Amino acid sequence: MGGATLLSAALEYRAQLESVAEFLRILAGICWTLNYFSMMYVSGREKIPNTGVFPLCCDIAWEFVYAFIHPTASAHWQGGVKVWFLVHCAVVTYILKFAPNEWDDTPIVKRNIRFIYGAVTLGFLGAQWSFAEEVGPDLGFFYGGVLCQTLASLGPICQLLARNSTRGSSLLTWGLRATATVGGFIKLSIYYICDIPAGPWFESPMCKFYIILTLVLDVSYPFLYSAVRRQELASAAAPKKRN
């Protein structure tokens, strides 16, 4: 009864829901774009990368595949994927200026950091392209994006904990990404309710797992950031107390 009532209400307000979904699509696109510029800003300010190798390289590979090889699969973004690809190229070019600074204790990585970024990007490009050929561009776009999203949410947490420092991290970057993510989930939920094609959404157990995982990661980040920041402040205050 409740499900039927919800479906009936959705059909009654379909036009309004579709308008909300379109607004969320635009909002997500803007937030993702601003997120990339935030990466550049924080990287320049802190002189170390604001994002990890895998998330950045996976994004570039996915965007290249669905902007130029299978553009019809990303047509609903109306060229947005091409814009993100170009912005990401600027991001990686800028971040490479500071990437060696993070590897002073690992000279072999420091010397070859540009090669590493290139090799990882090519690896993800091969994976995204072959996956699209295996399952089809539409499913490839969807699940390839799932991988990008998961790495985008997991990478900053790994970076924060591995550094044991908030240097190079940013709540602004997180906030923009989280807003885009949640907005995207709500948008796709509206698509599902209104029976608008948008990939294997609630029918897919993997999608349900992905939603939960991504939300848990994004909700966890500010708490972990705050914990590391408190630790930094406590460490900075300790010498003053001894004096």
UniProtKB/TrEMBL annotation:
Pfam families: Pyr4-TMTC (PF25129). It is found in: Membrane. One of its GO terms (cellular component) is membrane. InterPro entries: PaxB-like. One of its GO terms (molecular function) is lyase activity. It is a multi-pass membrane protein. It comes from the Eukaryota. The chain crosses the membrane at residues 20-39, 81-100, 112-129, 141-162, 174-193, 209-228. Keywords: Lyase, Membrane, Transmembrane, Transmembrane helix. Belongs to the paxB family. This is Terpene cyclase. It comes from Penicillium chermesinum.
